[in-house]
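Risk mitigation, structural track. In case the binding assays with zinc ion fail to produce interpretable data, a predicted complex structure has been prepared as a fallback.
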Amino acid sequence: MDPIRTLLDNRLRAGLALAVTLLGTVACAETPGAEAGEAAALADVPWFGVMLPPGLTPDALQVISDRPAAPAVVPQGEAGWRELEGAALQRDLATIVGFSRESRETGEVGQGMLWGRITGFPSGRKTIDWVAAQFRAAGIADVRMQEISHAPDAGITLPLSWEVRLLGDAAFGDGSQDVVLESAMPLSGEIPAEGLTAPLVYVGGASTAELAHVDVRGKIAVQKAVPQGHTVFVRDPVGPRATDLLERGAVAVLTVIALPGNMRVRDIGCGGGTCFNLGGQDGRFLEAVLGHAAEAGSEIRARLTLESQRFSGLSAANAVAVVPGTSRADEYVVVNAHADAWFDGAGDNGDGLAVLAGLARHFGRADMRQERSIVLVASAGHHSSGLSGPGSFVSMNPDIVAGTVLLINLEHTAERHITPARSDHPDGYQEWTMDAHEAPIVAGISNGSPFLDQLVRRGIERYGTNFVSGPNRMASGEGGTYTRAGMPVFTAMQGSPMYHTTGEVLEMISTPGLERMARFTAFFIKEVSRAPAGQIDPQ
Ligand SMILES: [Zn+2]
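Fallback model:
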């Protein structure tokens, strides 16, 4: 073997291949015959000289964050409210994320490739128990654990283990071994025990115009999605495209999701067929080698495996704390934060839950009693089908629901804002970076109340809360269930790109941002608690 070549690591090989390609391009125009030399050089290195993807590092921060978040603003008179300080909330958040990490380390679901605070599983139960303990420690006497159980026909299907393996072939260069794309995340589907092996076909955006020229029958289709902010925003176009590919005869769909680093992404379905998401750097590798294979006239094959299980007969709980009002105890301001999460879930919804715990300590104080009663709900959440936190709260607490003047839903509230950076990973994939503030927060006012909108404006002035402009009536997530039950809902919700990914780690959360949201929400609750009902809900 060439002694120089043995010294080359992947990165250098990639550089060499690039140099060879560039030289080849230049030489091509002037020197016929250089093409053969280029082909020979590429054949010497594995996988066309493309740098191999980095694998999956579950707890790694996938963005650059060298500079701190902007400090929280503490208005006059609030300095004594230590329970709302960022450091205290951050400690709680670390505890909450710890329940997720335990779920991974203990292999709560299969091999621990999917983890979280999963409703119906011990991680979900521990999280709710912990919040209930915080409610009691805050001095709130009325803390209720409200049990929820699966109906006989209900259940949730979760993936236990899986693999997306690109099959190595000497045609891709000497030493091209199999490559496992570790960021792969199954969304649904069934694969026989021996696995599913098929050639890959790249379909780009998978629009009708593109697919008119591509035959996907019997192949694994690879499509690409580039989220603009929240991954949810590409659910509508990308999910149906995957379904369309399966209907056209593809045996499976791989969706490259161009997000930071190399993360698993548990979002965007394909109508129950076999589909997996791939993270950014796995996607970069796959697109590059498919390009080279197309040039070389060769085909890349992949083997997919997936083992799933349907879980039924599960149970969970909502933790509900009631702080009685001083003069209008049968009227309620309800604050909801869901406790469940996929992966570490620091932003969805660890931050909202940490703020809820801080609010419990604040309103548990004897000197913080308000006119109306305050109800704090740590919801079992909405990820585990058949175990709805908000749905159960509504059905189990008709008196509170009837007397609610406003429901406040805290859902993804303090994640740092990230944008594409002006730098690349060693493999050429673009890096991402944080700025000094939180990701934009939607302030959804379901009834369009001008009074509530005015409070949002005052919140921006008092605390620097990064609410988006433009009033809107958004009440998605948990808010949808409460709105349908007839309650006016205020939703504070970020649409962060890291949502439902393994990259949503503790370091993605702004500690001052937690404090900003806690102080704003405390202010908002107090103003609402003493406002006339007709102002809160003008209808
Ligand atoms: Zn959520």
